[in-house]
């Protein structure tokens, strides 16, 4: 049995017709082998993943018609998950208000800084890491628009799939803006290093293994949205307990957006299981075997080649996102999509069903191993080079 690693994430899906899909393998760059896509378990626990090849355009050409046929369903069932812009929250609602004048603005900034004084450095490691995930939106839209059958062909396409994706991106864009500004005003982090890390991360891109295939892509987005819902929700709890109700409200509000987006992607996979259960079941298995990786799993600050592993280990220690969460997400989708009860599957799809339904047991074993990791301390360039505890 392969050793397996896990992670945390942030992205959605979309696409429509493209050149006829062909399956192509592309050797993986060495840089993509640099970081292990762990979430809860440090690289020292599980080790680097095996080198693999990229597969592109793996969806058979005839499957494009499946997504074309679902356009009216998207219009009727998916677009309602968008919120009217006039009813959406905006970052400025949570931040010091410059319209109050110089003194009023300064007082609000001072109050913000007083509240964050009691927050541990580890919390800012999490906030910066989560912000990097939310603020890498250019990477996510680029990835989504590689998916055959649902992409935005023109950049302003009227295709319902494309409308959903742009709407999703517009809502997600607020998350990074809000977290970045709050972190900046806190005065608790080295923003120059944060900015450099952001640029490195976007330049590195991402490798989520969806193969330009929307079946796999929508499985990925369902999982990832639930993971970020949990991560931001847990940060809201920690912030409240530490005495910063405003930060708690910020993280909780972002978590609510992620939950709504999760519900949208869940419905897409439910529909795909209805109209094409065999292909969809195989896609779920494929993504579980590859491991759902956090979009910024290639994060880099110019110094630490193990930055993502170190960030993930802090997340595990604080309970922001853990191996247990990963297992529970898989169990949630097994139940929600009724995967154990699917009938009429072909041989390969039945085998995939069996693998996926047993997969949480594999993750639970890793959870037990994670508890045995030796405590250590590492430096994060974002936190003015202070050491923070990992599994300590």
UniProtKB/TrEMBL annotation:
GO MF annotation terms? metal ion binding; stearoyl-[ACP] desaturase activity
The UniProt record lists the keyword Lipid biosynthesis: yes
Q: How is the cofactor bound?
A: Binds 2 iron ions per subunit. Binds 2 Fe(2+) ions per subunit.
Q: Where does Fe cation 2 bind?
A: 172, 225, 258, 261
First-tier enzyme category under EC: oxidoreductase
Q: Where is this protein primarily located?
A: plastid
InterPro entries hit by this protein: FADS-2_CS, Fatty_acid_desaturase-2, Ferritin-like_SF, RNR-like
Which cofactor does this sequence's record say it needs?
Fe cation; Fe(2+)
Coiled-coil region(s) at which residues?
none
State the EC number(s). 1.14.19.-
CDD domains (alphabetical): Acyl_ACP_Desat
- Write one Pfam family the protein is assigned to: FA_desaturase_2
Q: Which GO terms describe its cellular component?
A: chloroplast stroma
Q: Which domain of life is it from?
A: Eukaryota
Residue positions binding Fe cation 1 = 134, 172, 175, 258
GO biological process entries: fatty acid biosynthetic process
Where's it found, cell-wise? Plastid, Chloroplast
Keyword field contains Lipid biosynthesis: yes
Entry keywords, A to Z:
Chloroplast, Fatty acid biosynthesis, Fatty acid metabolism, Iron, Lipid biosynthesis, Lipid metabolism, Metal-binding, Oxidoreductase, Plastid, Transit peptide
Record's subunit section:
Homodimer.
Q: What's this protein's family per the entry?
A: Belongs to the fatty acid desaturase type 2 family.
Task: Report the function annotation for this chain.
Answer: Introduction of a cis double bond between carbons of the acyl chain.
The protein's name: Acyl-[acyl-carrier-protein] desaturase
Write down the species: Solanum verrucosum
Its taxonomic path starts at: Eukaryota, Viridiplantae, Streptophyta, Embryophyta, Tracheophyta
């Amino acid at each position: 049995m392969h050793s397996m690693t896990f992670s945390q994430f942030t992205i959605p899906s979309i696409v429509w017709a493209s050149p006829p899909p062909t399956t192509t393998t592309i050797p993986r760059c060495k840089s993509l082998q640099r970081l292990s896509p762990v979430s809860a378990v440090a690289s020292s626990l599980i080790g680097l993943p095996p080198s693999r090849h990229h597969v592109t355009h793996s969806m058979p050409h005839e499957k494009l018609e499946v997504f074309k046929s679902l356009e009216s369903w998207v219009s009727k069932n998916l677009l309602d998950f968008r919120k009217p812009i006039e009813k959406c929250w905006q970052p400025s609602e949570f931040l010091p208000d410059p319209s109050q004048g110089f003194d009023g603005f300064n007082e609000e900034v001072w109050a913000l800084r007083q509240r964050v004084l009691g927050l541990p450095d580890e919390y800012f490691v999490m906030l910066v890491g989560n912000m990097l995930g939310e603020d890498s939106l250019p990477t996510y839209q680029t990835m989504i628009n590689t998916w055959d059958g649902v992409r935005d062909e023109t950049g302003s396409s009227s295709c319902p799939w494309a409308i959903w994706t742009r709407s999703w991106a517009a809502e997600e864009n607020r998350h990074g803006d809000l977290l970045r500004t709050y972190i900046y005003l806190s005065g608790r982090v080295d923003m120059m290093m944060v900015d450099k890390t952001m640029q490195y991360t976007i330049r590195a891109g991402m490798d989520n293994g969806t193969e330009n295939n929307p079946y796999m892509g929508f499985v990925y987005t369902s999982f990832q949205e639930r993971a970020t819902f949990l991560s931001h929700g847990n940060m809201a709890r920690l912030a409240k307990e530490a005495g910063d109700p405003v930060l708690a409200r910020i993280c909780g509000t972002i978590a609510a957006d992620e939950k709504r987006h999760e519900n949208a992607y869940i419905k897409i996979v439910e529909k795909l299981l209805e109209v094409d259960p065999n292909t969809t079941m195989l896609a779920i298995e494929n993504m579980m075997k590859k491991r759902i990786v956090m979009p910024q799993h290639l994060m880099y600050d110019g110094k630490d080649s193990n930055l993502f592993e170190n960030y993930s280990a802090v997340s595990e220690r604080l309970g922001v996102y853990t191996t247990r969460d990963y297992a529970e997400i898989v169990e949630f989708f097994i139940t929600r999509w009724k995967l154990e009860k699917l009938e009429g599957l072909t041989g390969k799809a039945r085998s995939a069903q069996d693998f996926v339904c047993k997969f949480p047991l594999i993750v639970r074993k890793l959870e037990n191993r994670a508890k045995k990791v030796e405590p250590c301390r590492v430096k994060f360039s974002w936190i003015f080079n202070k050491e923070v505890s990992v599994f300590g």
